[in-house]
């Protein structure tokens, strides 16, 4: 399974790069959906031999949310807004991509120095999880559109989830469900907020949300 | 491995490379429902141009005349450095991949100088675009070669390509596959193929490579045409070496597979050109950065 | 017991979403919060050994302390909210700053979210499992975002969006911290499984991997620190506090920040037990001082009095972190300070709400003579200011003194000096604003004319009882705590400080 896990990790990196390099909102939404799907496969690969029903069901649930419900919600939000389908970057795409490559290099370098813990099936898993988190943060900072920031948040959440998977952290079902529910509600509430922003401002550029300051 | 194989490869390249252009054109014509020019049209063109006299503008100097000649010389040397799949190059030594990249750079440098020497605004514009895009394509090429060198632990192109096997290409980390994608983009860029540049365009404002060689005529233009055919072969060989990982012990089979791969690549290029729209000029760098990122990612993956 | 604490507000919150009658809903709000308070007091005084779900939920001293603060503040807030909501109504109203029309969020949603907010904070206070704690803190973000967006206009929307995004991201990092913590247990887990429950973690703290533990604490501090409002992650706080209704600001400042603080403290307790106390303490001292400094800068010359209070919250959050970071007496002082600060800040925000309603402006320059226009609120405003800046005989003075003593005891004179200096700056900065607002002649102020709140002949207007009693109660409590800390509370604070490693 090691081989497939590596492939999965590389695909994960590629989705991140696409997220950073793409200029179209729908493409980004799709990419995050793909990311969710890849993460859904992760527990299956990590625990191939010891897979039980419980984590499998949880993984299925989270995949359904991340690859099905969230993209659907966000696509609806974009369609309802109906104005702009561009990502509207603060930092240009090429620069973003180069920065992202830099981040990847740094995380891989640091990944070698982290003390080993848990069941590391793939050496790449931890650094790439952290890389995904950083990409999410980067998107939140470097993109203006509210939808894009939500996507960044989701990418970050995906990275954290991947990290948990890499460690094979056995969270109790209740906690996992709670986390899922929270993330779901988070995206849901953000979706409502985006809808309201578009209604109130006729755009969803968050850098024009700048009335409040000292 | 007999010494005949490299020689035969170089000879094939010298003879068959204009045919690649013909194949690409034919596929495009076929895809768009036209009959298209004869397959050997490039040869006719070259011969026709060689029989004509050259016209030189009075504002140009020797630099302008040197451009096509240096370009052809550079690409010929590059041809002797490049292996085709399992067929080693005519010349091979440690670090020849740097020389290979440098020769392509030299070719571009003299083309750009020649273009600037004409003093024409259009050619200057073409030169500036050419430099902008190749500044991004070159790192992609070099990073990709570095990744390959690291994977195979070889610093010379021929043994490096000899190491490539099917297992290596589909290896789980996918590094070699990423390099192949990057090389495809470099191949399209350097040969001014479609998503980046349109070799058929005749509108100076949108031309990149073609506009640079607008002032060449007669034998000079024949040189330029032949150079681009050879360049297509040389860069194609880099890609085919990965994409067709056939390594038998029989040199003629290797050569056959390589040449077949080259023509398959020409067909693929034709199909790509027919199905893709040209990128907006401002989006081209983004596309090229993607190539750099692929190569860089491959390098990072193998460095680990 | 725990289930009752969680479910009473949760269920009544859900019911509130569907109740059509305003009267019934408001009664439900008060009843539910009162029941909650009653349960907390019972739990405190009888100290039953109650835990649920195999120890994942348990009421320990720290939990009761922070739950008590939350509950008391909520009760005051609920009482205030009744009057506030009937005053606000559902019709279109003009915005006080830019004059456009806007409508409030449906009151049912507001009440429902308020009660769910209480429930989620209860979850934070009683959660002993790392994951459940996280779930609780994140849930508070989600339930409060609609509260901040109660006035449906673009400023409150901006505040709500920033709050939602910044806090979600911050809390996401805290989740990463939880996973780091899990990684720290991995070595140990080879023997027998270790649940990520705080008492167990404390017990086996020495077996945990120190590097992962440090990384985990850092992430948790940054993550929950965002929620708590530690600088430089406080940026959502002034916006949210200034745009939310005053009741909500009071609850955010008084209760929510404490809950995030509790979450950090629980993790701190694990580090102290693992012998890494120095690491977490240094971080806390650093964040504390940075927060205080930043808040002091922004308080001086602040033009919006609700923002001023928000920055004061940043300052006090910094003091809390500083106190725990110093340890010893300061740690105990920090616990006491959490109580004092919450009560005082609650009273101040409610008073600020009254001022806002009468003057129809948040600008510190357009408010004059609060004492003559709103006599009770005016006195509360000044008293609250004196209390929050640590003037005797109010409770804050005592707790701040304890933290100072802790700094001196620890021999960290520079920290003590900086602490005093910053407190001084804040005192002067706030005094200039508050005194000018409280006294002076109110004639000719634009906002006052609109509400017809004041005329030279009749003087100040009668203040509604709902608007002054809750803040008065809170203020009286702070005054009381300054004069006499009941032994029951003293014991609770000591126990909480000891359990959370704040004394170490």
Going by helix content, strand content and strand pairing, the class of chain B is: mainly alpha
Distance between the termini of chain B: 34 Å
How is the biggest beta sheet of chain B arranged?
none
Q: Can you count the helices of chain B?
A: 12
Taking all Cα atoms into account, the compactness measure Rg of chain A is 17 Å
What is the mean pLDDT of chain A? 78
Name the average pLDDT of chain B.
86
- The helix content of chain B is over 70%
The count of DSSP E runs of length 2 or more, i.e. the number of strands of chain A, is 0
Structural class based on helices, strands and sheet pairing of chain A: mainly alpha
Number of strands of chain B: 0
Number of domains of chain A: 1
Number of helices of chain A: 7
Helical amount of chain A: over 70%
- How would you describe the oligomerization state of the chains in this entry? heterotrimer
What coarse outline of chain B follows from CA principal-axis ratios? globular
Low-pLDDT residue spans of chain B: none
Taking the alpha carbons of the first and last residues of chain A, their distance comes to: 55 Å
């Amino acid at each position: 399974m090691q081989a497939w896990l590596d492939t999965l990790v590389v695909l994960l990196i590629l989705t991140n790069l696409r997220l950073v390099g793409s200029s179209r909102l729908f493409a980004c939404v799709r990419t995050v959906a793909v990311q969710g799907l890849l993460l859904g496969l992760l527990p299956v690969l990590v625990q191939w031999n010891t897979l039980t029903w419980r984590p499998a069901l949880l993984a299925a649930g989270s995949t359904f949310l991340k690859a099905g419900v969230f993209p659907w919600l966000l696509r609806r939000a974009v369609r309802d807004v109906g104005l702009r389908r561009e990502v509207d970057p603060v930092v240009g795409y090429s620069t973003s991509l180069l920065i992202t490559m830099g981040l990847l290099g740094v995380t891989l370098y640091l990944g070698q120095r982290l003390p080993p813990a848990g069941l590391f099936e793939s050496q790449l898993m931890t650094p790439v999880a952290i890389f995904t988190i950083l990409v999410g943060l980067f998107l939140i900072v470097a993109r203006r559109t509210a939808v894009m920031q939500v996507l960044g948040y989701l990418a970050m959440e995906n990275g954290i989830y991947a990290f948990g998977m890499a460690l094979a952290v056995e969270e109790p079902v209740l906690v996992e469900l709670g986390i899922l529910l929270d993330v779901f509600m988070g995206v849901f509430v953000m979706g409502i907020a985006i809808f309201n922003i578009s209604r109130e401002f006729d755009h969803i550029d968050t850098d024009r949300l700048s009335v409040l300051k000292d | 491995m007999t010494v005949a194989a490299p020689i035969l490869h170089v000879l094939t390249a010298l003879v068959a490379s204009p045919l690649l252009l013909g194949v690409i054109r034919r596929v495009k014509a076929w895809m768009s429902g036209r009959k298209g020019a004869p397959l050997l049209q490039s040869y006719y063109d070259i011969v026709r141009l060689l029989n004509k006299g050259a016209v030189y503008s009075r504002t140009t100097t020797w630099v302008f005349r040197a451009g096509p000649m240096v370009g052809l010389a550079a690409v010929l040397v590059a041809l002797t450095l490049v292996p085709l799949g399992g067929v080693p190059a005519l010349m091979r030594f440690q670090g020849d991949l740097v020389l290979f990249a440098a020769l392509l750079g030299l070719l571009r440098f003299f083309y750009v100088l020649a273009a600037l020497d004409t003093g024409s605004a259009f050619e200057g514009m073409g030169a500036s675009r050419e430099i902008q895009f190749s500044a991004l394509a070159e790192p992609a090429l070099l990073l990709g070669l570095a990744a390959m060198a690291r994977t195979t632990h070889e610093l010379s192109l021929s043994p490096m390509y000899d190491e490539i096997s099917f297992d290596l290409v589909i290896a789980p980390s996918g590094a070699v596959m990423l390099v192949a994608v990057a090389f495809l983009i470099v191949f399209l860029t350097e040969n001014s193929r479609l998503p980046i540049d349109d070799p058929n365009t005749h509108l100076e404002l949108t031309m990149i490579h073609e506009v640079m060689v607008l002032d060449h005529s007669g034998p000079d233009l024949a040189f330029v045409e032949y150079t681009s055919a050879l360049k297509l072969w040389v860069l194609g060989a880099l890609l085919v070496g990965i994409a067709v990982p056939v390594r038998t012990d029989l040199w003629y089979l290797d050569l056959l597979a390589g040449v077949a791969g080259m023509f398959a690549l020409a067909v693929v290029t034709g199909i790509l050109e027919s199905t893709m729209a040209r990128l907006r000029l401002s989006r081209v760098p983004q596309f090229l950065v993607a190539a750099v990122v692929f190569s860089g990612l491959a390098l990072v993956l193998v460095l680990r | 017991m725990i289930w009752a604490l969680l479910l009473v507000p949760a269920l009544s919150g859900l019911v509130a979403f569907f109740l059509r009658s305003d009267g019934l809903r408001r009664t439900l709000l008060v009843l539910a919060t009162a029941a909650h308070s009653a349960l907390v007091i019972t739990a405190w005084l009888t100290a039953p050994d109650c835990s649920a779900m195999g120890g994942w939920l348990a009421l320990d001293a720290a939990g009761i302390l922070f739950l008590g603060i939350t509950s008391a503040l909520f009760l005051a807030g609920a009482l205030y909210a009744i009057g506030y909501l009937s005053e606000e109504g559902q019709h279109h109203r003009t915005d006080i700053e830019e004059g456009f029309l806007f409508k409030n969020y449906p009151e049912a949603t507001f009440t429902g979210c308020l009660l769910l907010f209480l429930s989620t904070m209860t979850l934070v206070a009683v959660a002993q499992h790392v994951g459940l704690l996280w779930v609780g803190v994140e849930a508070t973000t989600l339930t409060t975002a609609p509260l901040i967006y109660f006035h449906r206009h673009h400023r409150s929307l901006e505040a709500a969006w920033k709050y939602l995004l910044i806090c979600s991201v911050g809390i996401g990092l805290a989740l990463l911290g939880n996973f780091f913590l899990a990684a720290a247990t991995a070595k140990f887990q080879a023997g027998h499984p270790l649940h990520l429950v705080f008492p167990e973690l404390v017990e086996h703290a020495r077996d945990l991997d120190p590097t992962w533990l440090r990384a985990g604490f850092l992430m948790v501090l940054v993550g929950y620190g965002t929620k708590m409002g530690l600088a430089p992650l406080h940026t959502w706080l002034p916006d949210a506090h200034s745009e939310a209704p005053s009741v909500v600001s009071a609850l955010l400042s008084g209760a929510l920040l404490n809950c995030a603080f509790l979450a950090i403290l629980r993790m701190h307790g694990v580090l102290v037990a693992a012998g890494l106390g120095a690491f977490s303490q240094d971080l806390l001292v650093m964040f504390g001082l940075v927060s205080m400094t930043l808040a002091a800068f922004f308080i001086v010359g602040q033009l919006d009095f609700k923002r001023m209070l928000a920055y004061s919250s940043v300052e006090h959050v910094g003091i809390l972190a500083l106190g725990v970071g110093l340890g010893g007496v300061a740690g105990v002082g920090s616990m006491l300070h959490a109580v004092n600060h919450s009560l005082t800040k609650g009273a101040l925000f409610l008073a600020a709400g009254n001022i806002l309603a009468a003057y129809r402006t948040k600008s510190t320059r357009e408010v004059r003579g609060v004492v003559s226009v709103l006599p009770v609120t005016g006195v509360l405003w000044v008293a609250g200011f004196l209390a929050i800046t640590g003037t005797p005989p109010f409770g804050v003075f005592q707790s701040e003194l304890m933290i100072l003593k802790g700094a001196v005891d620890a021999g960290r004179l520079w920290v003590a000096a900086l602490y005093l200096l910053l407190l001084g700056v804040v005192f002067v900065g706030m005094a200039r604003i508050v005194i000018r607002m409280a006294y002076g002649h109110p004639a000719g102020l634009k906002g006052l004319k609109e509400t017809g709140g004041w005329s030279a002949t009749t003087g100040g207007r009668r203040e509604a009882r709902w608007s002054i009693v809750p803040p008065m109660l809170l203020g009286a409590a702070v005054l009381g705590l300054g004069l006499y800390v009941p032994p029951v509370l003293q014991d609770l604070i000591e126990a909480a400080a000891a359990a959370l490693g704040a004394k170490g």
